[in-house]
Alpha-L-glutamate ligase, RimK family (Candidatus Collierbacteria bacterium GW2011_GWA2_44_99), 311 residues
Amino acid sequence: MKIAYLHRLTFDESEKRFREEAVALGIELTTIKYRKLRLVGDKILFGNTEMKDFDGWYFRSVGSELEWSKLLQLYAKKHKIPVVDEYLMTEGPLRRYKSIMSWQLLEAGVKYPKSAYVESVSDLKKELNNWKFPAIVKLSQGGRHGMGTFWIREIEDVEKLEHVLESRKEKAKETGKKVPIFRGFLIQEYIKNDGDYRVMTVGYKCIGGFKRQVKEEKLILNKSQGNSVAVADLPAEVIEIAEKAARCLGVEVAGTDIIRDLATGELYIVEVNEAPQFKVFEKRTKINAAGAILEFCMEKFGKTQKIKNSK
């Protein structure tokens, strides 16, 4: 079986794991960066290989590659090429915006913290005057490893947030990188908890999870107060809400973060991450995440291939 592994950035550990498992499963896995593709007429090519020659595509990440994502979506529909994740055939990479995710979860009846979305820092300050502190503010476009999540204890913290974002712009200029445009903020009510569950689902089914300690209460909420711990038997209700959230968003490979309200005992979805990193997951749970993802791709692409070949 030939699978195209589409990605934007190279994370050596993840890519190494996928290559190892592909060899073990007898898969011909080709890693493809979007900007190595070519559109010629109605053909999308990687080198001399047309993309329809693969049995299926696994979009490991999309990020800001909006143009290529749309072109690949149109091409896949035309040639009936099966893909993972399904959301790319509907909302596409716009689903990665936290504002859109919050809308879809609420529409599906999945518990999600009270939220509001605003465009600018000035709008953020105005809106927060109506909120109870502390509150959580997230960059709607996200940020890796919690770097886009902020703990706001008082309105003056918004100025500190603004300073952090300006510093990131300056650092990008100094290093010759593309200067980010920070716009779009999701405000969430803070729900007191004792840490969050990270649940991994593949094909909308839970394969395991672990629990992270409560976050350090500082401006950037990117660090837990202790090491995460394995959870041998995840609570059934945690599994249920993780699977429901992944399905309603169309994220077939998901890392879902869930907290329990210490006051009410209710569970809330904090985040549904598409193409999650799984180094810590594999370390804590001893579960072969890369293998599970590729086996799911084989099952999905294989079934689709049989249907195509029978016509």
